Amino acid sequence: MEVFDQRIDQFGKRSRRRRPASGPAVVFLPEEALVTPPLDAEAETQPWRAGALAALHAFQAHGYRQLIQALPGERPARIQQGLLQRLGHEADVEVEGMLPHVEVEDLPALLRQAAASQGLDLRRAWFLSWDEALGAAARRSGCRSVRLLEPGRHSRRRWPLLRGHVPMRLMEAVVYVLRCDGHLAAGQSLPDPA
């Protein structure tokens, strides 16, 4: 029996026929959405961005596995490991790991490899990024995507509309994902963090 996925991703594309999804839901988050530059600073000195920890906690509370997309550029592995350890100790957030930064054309293969190695179903995956090219590449691998408002921007007025879509702030994106996956009802918001 064929199943139709009635969810529509943020870019207005209705999925065609799909097999029922299996495996845990996963979200891929950009590292720069979590911490502020400078990029070469030690992990302990990088301040958290507003809403970053609340977003991670919300995804974790709803059973999403989380992987971080590394920033572009050559950075020592100890900085990335430091960030993952800091998330576990300081923020009490369990992150599956960090994906290396790759060019757009290599992203679908990287996501498929990560899914195969960690037992993930990309049909239940969300890819968050402010780069539409990366979002399109993630959709080619089977993920759904959300376009974030670029870090440091507070206004969306200058952004061109993309198929009727305006970039979202991180917490707006969290609420959007949770609503699409049925964790929140329409109009329902996340409880304020204690």
Plain-language structure description:
The chain has 194 residues and is α/β, with parallel strands linked by helices. It has a single domain (24-180), classed as Rossmann fold (3-Layer(aba) Sandwich), CATH 3.40.50. 28% of the residues lie in helices and 13% in strands. It is built from 5 helices and 7 strands, in the order E-E-E-H-E-H-E-H-E-H-E-H. It has helices spanning 52-61, 77-89, 107-118, 132-140, 170-180, and strands at 3-4, 17-18, 26-30, 65-69, 97-99, 125-129, 144-147. A 5-stranded parallel beta sheet has the order 5-4-3-6-7, sandwiched between helices. Strands 1-2 form a two-stranded antiparallel sheet. The radius of gyration is 16 Å and the shape is globular. It starts with a strand and ends in a 14-residue tail after the last helix.
What's the gist of this structure?
The protein is of the alpha/beta class and about 190 residues long.
Number of helical elements: 5
**Principal-axes shape call:** globular
Q: Give the total of beta strands.
A: 7
Percent helix range: 25-40%
Largest sheet: 5 strands, parallel
User: Average pLDDT value?
Assistant: 81
Please give the domain count.
1
Strand order of the largest sheet: 5-4-3-6-7
Radius of gyration using CA atoms only = 16 Å
Tell me the strand percentage band.
5-15%
CATH class bucket: Alpha Beta
**H and E string:** EEEHEHEHEHEH
Structural class category: alpha/beta
